[in-house]
Write a structure and sequence with these properties.
Strand order of the largest sheet: 1-2-3-4-5-6
Order of helices and strands: EEEHEHHEHEEEEEEEHEEH
CATH architecture: 4-Layer Sandwich
Oligomer: single chain
Helix content: 10-25%
Radius of gyration: 15 Å
CATH class: Alpha Beta
Strand content: 25-35%
Number of helices: 6
Number of strands: 14
CATH superfamily: Ribonuclease Z/Hydroxyacylglutathione hydrolase-like
Distance between the termini: 29 Å
Number of domains: 1
Structural class: alpha/beta
Length: 191
């Protein structure tokens, strides 16, 4: 199984979408912008569209990708409702998704937004804006909370191994081991 980063431009800044090339279909994660670029990375049928959080830069191309693929959308209601996303399959903490031959566990990881989730795929994590290179997601915006993001980090970090990769919403794919060693925003008790 391969997770491919698709860097797209939303209002002039780079945001990551991902295509998970699963054994029996493709999973699109965060259809942020440039739907034609995202769709161009599909090697087969898209079986699901997964959303880490409902900010515009992560769902800007959602409807175009949904129309083109007919794939169902999975999203946490705390972000779907304010973002006015209709017709989605609601995610809840601990849910196991088996899609296209891939098994993903959903962790509700609020802090950057009330409905932020992390998708755990084997040892890897699709974290949205929970963790960014050398930083964490913004907590100075409506609906965000430093206390909640810290609690969310405490949930995901014990799952990290030396091989864990973090697929974040902006910037390169991260090594969890490197972030643990260098990221000053991670909680010190588990860093």
């Amino acid at each position: 199984m391969e997770i491919e980063r698709v860097a797209v431009s939303f209002d002039g800044f780079e945001v990551n979408s991902y295509v998970v090339h699963a054994p029996q279909g493709e999973l699109v994660v965060d259809a942020g912008a440039e739907p034609e670029r995202i769709l161009g990375r599909l090697r087969g049928e898209a079986v699901a569209i997964l959303i880490t959080h409902g900010h515009a830069d992560h769902i800007g191309a959602l409807e175009e990708v949904r129309r083109a693929t007919g794939a169902p959308v999975y999203m946490h209601p705390a972000d779907a409702e304010p973002a006015r996303v209709a017709g989605y399959d609601p995610l809840e903490d601990g849910r196991l998704l088996e899609l296209g031959g891939a098994a993903l566990r959903v962790l509700h990881t609020p802090g950057h937004s009330p409905g932020s989730v992390t998708f755990v795929l084997g040892e890897d994590q699709l974290v949205g804006d929970l963790i960014l290179p050398g930083s964490v997601g913004r907590t100075d915006i409506p609906g965000a909370s430093w206390e909640e993001i810290e609690l969310s980090l405490r949930r995901v970090m014990p799952l990290w191994s030396e091989r864990t990769r973090l697929y974040c919403g902006h910037g390169p794919v991260l090594s969890a081991a490197e972030e643990r060693a260098k990221n000053p925003y991670l909680p010190p008790e588990v860093a």
